[in-house]
Please model this.
Amino acid sequence: MLKISELMGRIREQNPVVHHLTNWVTIYDCANVVKVFGGSPVMAHAKEEVAEMARLASALVLNIGTLAPDFVEAMKIAAVAANKKGIPVVLDACGAGATRLRDDACFDLLHSVKIDVIKGNRSEIARIAGENVHTRGVDAAEVDRDMIYLAKKLSAERECSTVITGKEDVVTNGIKTYLVNNGHPMMADVVGTGCMAASVIGMFCAVEKDHVAACACGLACYEAAAEMAAAASRGPGTFKENFFDAAYNLDKATVDKMAKIVLLE
Amino acid sequence: MLKISELMGRIREQNPVVHHLTNWVTIYDCANVVKVFGGSPVMAHAKEEVAEMARLASALVLNIGTLAPDFVEAMKIAAVAANKKGIPVVLDACGAGATRLRDDACFDLLHSVKIDVIKGNRSEIARIAGENVHTRGVDAAEVDRDMIYLAKKLSAERECSTVITGKEDVVTNGIKTYLVNNGHPMMADVVGTGCMAASVIGMFCAVEKDHVAACACGLACYEAAAEMAAAASRGPGTFKENFFDAAYNLDKATVDKMAKIVLLE
Amino acid sequence: MLKISELMGRIREQNPVVHHLTNWVTIYDCANVVKVFGGSPVMAHAKEEVAEMARLASALVLNIGTLAPDFVEAMKIAAVAANKKGIPVVLDACGAGATRLRDDACFDLLHSVKIDVIKGNRSEIARIAGENVHTRGVDAAEVDRDMIYLAKKLSAERECSTVITGKEDVVTNGIKTYLVNNGHPMMADVVGTGCMAASVIGMFCAVEKDHVAACACGLACYEAAAEMAAAASRGPGTFKENFFDAAYNLDKATVDKMAKIVLLE
Model:
């Protein structure tokens, strides 16, 4: 297994540019989480510049949180450029299962371009995997299925890594499967933690070609910082600011010690 | 009078989905205030999905803070779906009186769909009530009128509840009128407090059909949390984070004790 | 030299409206920085209302951070109204040098309307001054040129003030040149500090016609607050909240003492 601290070090040295087409709610958080870990975020969504921006980047993160048809077109243009350059493309299936437009956007993207990592909560991933799930807005609904099975099936079908975030995160490429057990319940009580996870994943995949390992390391790292922040916070307001501090100050030895990653047989 | 703590409890139990079409400045704050009080925020503005999203929701909040003509069209589609489902629709008349586009958007919405609660500051509500007021941007201008009279008139004409926020909030449906005297001057020194008030109102109306009482309780609850936050803050930066903490941790007995709501004869 | 405290006082008294057409990443920060210093921010981008809004304002700030062709059209309409009214127009050349669209937007704006202040980091200003620089996203790239020379040349050609932010800020109108040496390295480790600088500059130019002096005072004031915030922070998360507190509480005597502005011969 790769050491998290090794990847953290690469991010701090290489300062990878992570290009986002994301939603207007958590766009600041997505940019800032990349910044505090040592990457260089860039947000650009105009069709006229996304290809050029993707060519400057080391990873591309697509998030459909506040999508519109035009926006999906721009995502495709950016992803084509990213595919051509060979940089990882992460899709956050935010709200998949809630509306037809969101489902269509995900399937359209998966059909049109190469997505390297699909990330969502239980209900979102179940929907993308073809289950008949109705998501209640953007928060996770309970899904009565074996999520590891679904994630592996999706990865095999789509030739990608799949990340299911939750109390225990599932990370798989269909062959290798990791469970990540870091994090804190307060992450579910503040807006933005799901979106930031996708940005972190993009940043870690920017510095490591073994994407499934990069995803697991990225999540463990991100959630370790969240654990430290939660311990120092009185609620979700101070938690978020403390999280940015913790991520920024994260010590390599500490993160390797805190990580709870299990490789399934 | 309804107990605030009773409504707070319903929100924490029922976790109502509050669908927003709001501005790009405070969109994060609007989502997060719903989250920390126990609701489930969803932000979606594409014409292609707003009706579907509104049908998943328990309240709809419309805020014209950074509007555009297309956006108003999407608001109407969402509101029609909300009206059909019978969920409350809140309109935050942000910046009414500042430009023709904002006035037109408000009047167009009020004409086309059923708005259950209109919320604004003194100058915004005066403008919506037909007074010849020119708002200076989005901050309240002084209005030389009896605001209670104007709010009651507006409510009677539009068959809705009207909320005027300020040092003393006026909440009326034309018949019952409440004054809410909670809050803290620091709320006027940070961006987003006005918009968050509309989101809170939407969330409280989602769990209580007596809208005028729900609005008064929601404001008192929101402003009580702000009072607690201000007491612990050195300025508007820490105030906002402390506010999210205070809202999250708000104790039922405390909020009932702190509430300063008066029912006018 | 103007006293910073004198301009700070004017802002707190006059409460200038600062109209922004800015990016969706830091739009909240841009609004809030104006608010905490005592101004009144307004964000409006629809073609149908920008001229009217600019006419209500005392300064106009244009930021191309997440631009689109339509957005540039709205910027021009707002700037024409601002020019007609005689209020200062500030252009933040965010990401110039990264894509053709950004370069074109800047040159198009500079050609079509009167820009009073151009602000950017080293690579952005070099690009606007006609150098063959390729910016890496939105973070500053190293530029191997005498920046003071470039800034003066740009100011002379465009008849404007030019601000280059960095460890040492260069502020010039081609004739008078100031160096500002306030600030803290942590400003580069959090998203939004560059954009906020442009908003502060707009606000200071709103209350003082000697724009080059207003820019220097605004930057010194903004960066002095950042120094105070950094001294009280554990990382970029708490830094930002402490910054808003520090700006809000900034004492006139303190800021005059802290300012490190040098007028070059």
